[in-house]
């Protein structure tokens, strides 16, 4: 089973540390997450691409990643947009016990405080690509594939 970006049998010491933190119910600290990603970036083969989902989640993580991954910088930052009402309805439709309006409202507030500043950060670097996500999945997927293909063709988009 994958946890903290590694399989148990080939998990690095850093991955094992992150796994232990998550098992205790805590969030993995920024410095550990950045180190895990930087370690993976350092082992990319020439021409290989790494897609990060949900990282970075904060400006400190983004800045630390930029500092640590100088040669293998971010090529594109994808920003899927949708109105809060759409996000709320989608989350409620999942049927999870922790998906209720109060918790979802809190999650959106935490997102605005912690993660949304990344939009301006990556936009300011010319790396942000917005994809409207309040549409059919097929349309979103087409935009995503097109955006990633365009980003791979444009080496100037790497910082």
Question: Overview of this structure, please?
Answer:
The strands form two sheets. This protein has a two-stranded antiparallel ribbon with strand order 1-2. It has a two-stranded parallel ribbon with strand order 3-4. 8% of the residues are buried. Strand 1 (2-3) and strand 2 form a beta hairpin. The chain contains seven helices and four strands. The two termini are 33 Å apart. By secondary structure, the chain is mostly helical.
**How is the biggest beta sheet arranged?**
2 strands, antiparallel
Unreliable residue runs = none
Quaternary organisation of the protein chains: single chain
Strand content: 5-15%
Task: Please report the distance between the alpha carbons of the first and last residues.
Answer: 33 Å
**H/I helix tally:** 7
Shape: globular
In round numbers, the mean pLDDT is: 86
Strand order of the largest sheet: 1-2
Please estimate the helix content.
40-55%
Structural class: mainly alpha
* Beta strand count: 4
SSE run = EEHHHEHHHEH
CA radius of gyration: 17 Å
